[in-house]
Structure formats: C-alpha cells, structure tokens
Predict the structure.
Amino acid sequence: MNDKFVYVTYIRTTPDKLWDALLKPEFQRQWFWGTTLQSDWKKGSPWKLVKPDGSLDTTGKIVDIDKGRKLVLTWANESFPELKAEGASQVAFEMEQKGDIIKLTVIHEIAREKSQLIEKVSGGWPMVLSSLKTMLETGAMLPDPRTAGSCAA
C-alpha cells in the first residue's frame, strides 16, 4: 500500500508563469528561499535540489514532463539517512487552467505505509507552495516560515 500526500491550491497566474517559476532557478530562488532544482528538464533526465549553501538535498529523475500541464519526478532524499533509507518516492505537479487561475495539485507518494518522508513533506509542501503562490500573485517573497519565529510550523 502507498502512503500519499495531496495538496491543491489555486493561483492567479498563467500556465507559462507557473511553469517558469517551477523550472527556472532565477524564480525558484525567490519562492524556495534560495534553493534551486537543477536539470535540463527532459523526460528521463536526472534532477537535483540544491540548498543555498550548495549542499545536495534531493535527487531523482524526470518521469514525465508536459509543459504547463504536468511534471512528474522521482524523489530521493539525500539529507536525512532515515528518509534516504525509505527509497525513492514520486511527486507529481498537475496544472489545470480555470479561467485566469491555475489549479495546482501536488501529489507526493511512496510505495510503503506510514512513511517518515511523507510525514515530513506533508509539512514542507504547504510552506513551499504558499511561497510559490505568494510570489506569483504579488511579486513579493514570502518570509521563510522555518525561521520566522512564531510563524514556524
């Protein structure tokens, strides 16, 4: 049985702007507090999530990519041994245009029950996606909730 986290948000933006925000480092640094996803963004290619200090956080491969509609990645945590031991998971970003807004659904799942990784990303994805939404709708960066005192989750 799989353990799964699903998050849905609605963002006032265009498919192209959301796509650029997800894949281009100059935008990622803004909504992901200096972190970047690095890849050539082709199906089957490797990708990595690099922290602001240059250390490696997460790695994987691109399973599916359909500009402005879907991005599916394998996800292997490299930062925490107990999460790395669980093996690779998969995260899907599904985008659907609804007038002048985009419905963004993020599905993160792993082929195991009671996953520590899914528990961890269940707290992380809402912070990260709220920051993405704020940047796209206001142009301003959302302070990092992990370091914002009483705002920390």
